[in-house]
Design a protein that fits this description.
- It is a single chain.
- The protein has helices spanning 64-67, 112-116, 196-201, 210-232, 253-256, 260-271, 289-300, 355-362, 366-382, and strands at 3-6, 17-21, 24-30, 36-39, 44-52, 55-62, 74-81, 90-97, 106-110, 121-124, 129-131, 147-149, 154-164, 167-176, 183-188, 236-242, 281-286, 306-312, 325-329, 342-343.
- By secondary structure, it is α/β, with parallel strands linked by helices.
- The chain folds into two domains: 3-97, Immunoglobulins (Immunoglobulin-like); 106-382.
- Strands 9, 10, 13, 14, 15, 16, 17, 18, 19 and 20 form a ten-stranded mixed sheet that branches. A four-stranded antiparallel sheet has the order 1-3-6-5. Strands 2-8-7-4 form a four-stranded mixed sheet.
- A hairpin with a 2-residue loop joins β13 (154-164) and β14 (167-176).
- The relative contact order is 0.13.
Length: 384
């Protein structure tokens, strides 16, 4: 049975109340399985801090907003759960005693004109060939995927920045042209640190590096995830937070501070005159991004109206949080199938129009680097 414990002595703190002198503590969750750690209030940032034996470690911090407003400390309940709508698996209460710090404010700005000299980008996307879900049979390993051409779309892109305290991150917002977007897909990509040399060459240390922003726009928004969204959902926008290596974790307070991600999304939607985006928020994550996605769902994006969670070939086969899920595995990150995932090994992809080209170029990485991130988001959205 899962339980919280202190670090390093391993003493159980589940179902207890603890007091911390300061604004941060690291605890362990033993036998965590697929449980995610979050909190009942909105004053904490919680993020993974590694492994120790059979425990997952978490650092729990009072976020900047709370540190600047709570003069008598802050109390909250920390929760381990795999279903935010059900009773938690285990909990503990914590009180942080600390001095008030100077206030910090969230500042969100449209930076498209300033950085690129245009009010907005407009792109005509090439009609893509995507998986034909009318012939897709879930769970049938003999079912070779068919492909069909989809309609071309015109989209607009704007670049926003969000800054809280000294930490700033950029966000690409893609909207369909000619129709109103009434839902939003938030894409949490793989971590950039695993290819540090490449992203450092793009200015990864500067959240507003033009080389980095253009690279992410062209390779990930237009050619990968945005292409899939635009092809199958004319009523959906896409938000892509751009990772950076400065200011803590790659995505910063967007994922780790209670409600900050939701506040950023709401402000961007308002500034873009696209408030209807908040009617339904979906999340898609790929590879190592699963850990950040689960943190965002439980903490940074707390309070958003979540609908569908899409999990593409996650590291270690970690499931995504949420009630409505579409999850896909190639076997690259797990060595084989897992319960709760659609297993898509290479024999199911031989009709991919790019199979020969990408298989020659990528070899055994064809599935993880090309097929699953390029096609499975559209599969999930087509089955909604």
């Amino acid at each position: 049975m899962a339980y919280f414990h202190s670090v390093p002595d391993g003493r159980s703190i589940s179902n207890t109340e603890i007091t911390v002198q300061g604004t941060s503590i690291t605890v362990g969750l033993a036998d965590a399985g697929d449980l995610q750690v979050t909190n009942a209030g909105d004053g904490l940032s919680i993020f993974p801090a590694g492994k120790r034996g059979n425990s997952t470690l978490y650092t729990i911090q009072v976020n900047e907003r709370t540190r600047s407003t709570q003069s008598a400390g802050y109390a909250d309940t920390v929760i381990a759960t795999n279903n935010l709508g059900a009773a938690p698996a285990t909990t503990f209460k914590v009180t942080f005693n600390f001095k008030v710090e100077p206030a910090t404010h969230l500042v969100v700005r449209d930076r498209t004109q300033e950085l690129f000299g245009v009010a907005q980008f407009h792109f005509q996307l090439t009609p893509p060939r995507l998986v034909d879900v009318t012939t897709f049979r879930p769970g049938d390993q003999s079912n070779v995927l068919d492909f069909a051409i989809k309609s071309a779309r015109v989209v607009s892109l704007s670049l926003f920045s969000a800054k809280i305290g000294i930490t700033e991150r950029a966000f690409w917002l893609m909207l369909p042209e000619g129709t109103r977007a009434t839902s939003l897909m938030v894409v949490i990509s793989h971590g950039f640190g695993q290819n540090h040399a490449y992203y450092s060459g793009k200015g990864y240390g500067d959240p507003l590096s033009k080389d980095l922003l253009v690279d992410v726009r062209d390779r990930f928004v237009l050619a990968r995830w945005g292409m899939q969204v635009a092809a199958v959902r004319s009523d959906m926008g896409l938000l892509f937070p751009v990772r950076a290596s400065t200011g803590g974790t790659e995505l910063g307070p967007f994922i780790s501070e209670g409600g900050v991600g939701g506040a950023i999304i709401s402000t961007i939607a308002a500034q873009a005159n696209a408030d209807f985006l908040l009617n339904a928020v979906d999340v898609c994550t790929f590879s190592s991004g699963i850990h950040d996605a689960n943190t965002f769902i439980a903490t940074g994006g707390k309070g958003l109206n979540y609908r569908l969670m899409v999990n593409q070939d996650p590291a270690g086969g970690v499931p995504i949080a949420g009630k409505s899920r579409k999850q896909y595995l190639s076997g690259w990150t797990t060595g084989g199938p897992r319960p709760g995932f659609e297993y898509l090994p290479k024999p199911r992809w031989v009709k991919d129009p790019k199979f020969d080209e990408m298989n020659r170029a990528l070899g055994r990485e064809y599935l993880h680097t090309w097929a699953l991130p390029t096609y499975t988001l559209a599969m999930a959205l087509s089955q909604m």
